[in-house]
């Protein structure tokens, strides 16, 4: 087995006890990248010498953090002090920031080696697509906007990578690429130094190849409750299978993934019950769109004024509020979201997790359509933690995942649930 | 009259029609700074040549934005591409970022000339205080954390400046320094590129010397509703005088300021009624503290890990959660805030504004105590727009202001109300 094939959680103890060096692991990842990158095109910046230097520094470190020596990719709309941050925008080609984004600082502080920057949809929002292809089928998208991060982890190039989610930019690519992804509770991971799209929605998250990988990064961020184990076995779990208000938009393979995951869990002794969401949830998807459009007005205003010709029409439209969102609509959306957050949380602790679709189906063909975020945007607005879990394959042999969802700030328990259910769902 | 004595709104038409050049205005501000800075110490970075170069560029500009040629100060925890951003932290001395914060980009895009960086409490949050002194009495604080911005505008050094408010960092210094300040609705001004303290609370705002100055900056940010005038006269206004749950913490001069403002308005024909806030508001101040402490855990984690020795104990305590905030407390605080936002908004349109204390009284003596934010932190958590208006003098001859408050996204109407009531309150 080559080092690049190790999951982060398998490599972590070896890096800690010295049976594997960060340099050897990075070198192996670089070899894998050299082999696969011409097809997958996951990276916008990768300097092998810089990565190896960082790895050697990690090997010499006096303290060993929870991510000691683990290579990590960073979505290219998150600032890095030693690498450019282009946002996939012609405005910011070659931009160098003076300091790391907060999330990058935290993982470096815990010993991670930043390998490089991964391609993204422009500003993680719209406009230009990433060049990245789906590692399972290069004619298809890996999903967006965290295209390069999801594909790089899926393709064995790097064990961990940062993504972000404002609509469905983290969990949907996880489903399309067959990897694990975590969108934590909104607000618990400092998004300073990542491009702002929507204040209410933007959430930093991460990809890995198993639930243990996701937990390592959660530990770096000291999420609430990680020190208290769930203390349950599979047979004591209660999972709410939730089709949700957009079930009719799920393709057959995505519906089947959720139902299959439910059957597998039930067969393993988990109490699985279908649950309908209470009143109001039918409107959350639209509320998410209203907030996205309204907050997009201010998000790209500086670029609109200073670099108008280089700003994609998508963003000019947002600044000009062509969708005509009113203040009243925006307030109604905020207030509905506040209500539904509380109502959703009330499902817990009656259940340990909600099981729901992660995408409409397999990854679409081509680069332009990065997939529909309809199974993610509601949860993003509800601020609840979501973990994407691979489940099955679609009619074209591409991965189709599901997601499990917890209450706000229930990230730690949800990670424990993921560790129990993933081996059953991802059979 | 020297150009530095002009308000922004008085200078704006002269700059637009060419009777005043940006260069002449900046030169005059620089002369005023040369005279006053040894006492006031408002600036952490000021390069006269850079400021004059920017002014000459503004004079040559083809388009004339709403802030054309107006000098502006920037609180030194907001990024600027051409000046260092130190956050008043030893960690970031000399830090150069590659691009402007979004708010700086917007005002530059509208023609403003960034004059320099103003001193701040460390990370606009705690730890080290600004060196700045109150222009009305150099033995006293200008308030914090927007110390340098409030003092610079009060001292005639610059007509406009950015501040931020997480607790009471914008409106309180306005009261202490006798200037106008606006904290807009949370989320409408993109805070990308400002240091994060609390995701839920951090709000970019600005100082000026009259309501018209505040409006100019609001126009640059295209706040909702500015195109629709309020269309009322003083005699048609209804103002709710609200002592609020912390009235007993207001010193006599602050209580008197609010009551005096109420009497002055009533004498001018405004319908002024005392209003008690509905149930729940007694706990909002504590909810703000809970959210501040909980979000402070993640806000300084990167510095805690990477520059521990240079991070003030204040911030280490936050990261270590020494105040022991639990996830349950944090959720309860969020949910209470969501309820109270709706309840507060329901006061409108029955009233046009709420009138309330802006500070506990005059500015304290010394640099260490920058004042109590108790009359601001509730409104910050409620996300509502607040405008600080000078009103009277305290027993030591220092300014004491009041504030008027509107419903969420009612910024434009509140600016119209301010234009009507300020000449009466600030008599």
Explain how this protein is built.
- 2 copies of one chain form a homodimer.
- With 427 residues, chain A is α/β, with parallel strands linked by helices.
- The first copy, chain A, has a domain at 3-220: Amidase signature (AS) enzymes.
- Chain A has helices spanning 8-17, 22-40, 48-60, 102-109, 147-154, 171-177, 211-220, 252-267, 284-299, 301-306, 313-319, 327-345, 377-382, 411-425; strands spanning 43-45, 71-75, 113-118, 160-165, 180-183, 203-208, 238-241, 271-274, 353-357, 386-393, 399-405.
- Chain A has an 11-stranded mixed beta sheet, with helices on both faces.
- Chains A and B meet through α4, α9, α10 and α12 of A and α4, α9, α10 and α12 of B.
Short description:
2 copies of one chain form a homodimer. Chain A has 427 residues and is an alpha/beta fold.
Fold topology:
2 copies of one chain form a homodimer.
Chain A: H1 8-17, H2 22-40, E1 43-45, H3 48-60, E2 71-75, H4 102-109, E3 113-118, H5 147-154, E4 160-165, H6 171-177, E5 180-183, E6 203-208, H7 211-220, E7 238-241, H8 252-267, E8 271-274, H9 284-299, H10 301-306, H11 313-319, H12 327-345, E9 353-357, H13 377-382, E10 386-393, E11 399-405, H14 411-425
Parallel strand pairs in A: 2-3, 2-4, 7-8, 7-9
Antiparallel strand pairs in A: 1-3, 4-6, 5-6, 5-10, 9-11, 10-11
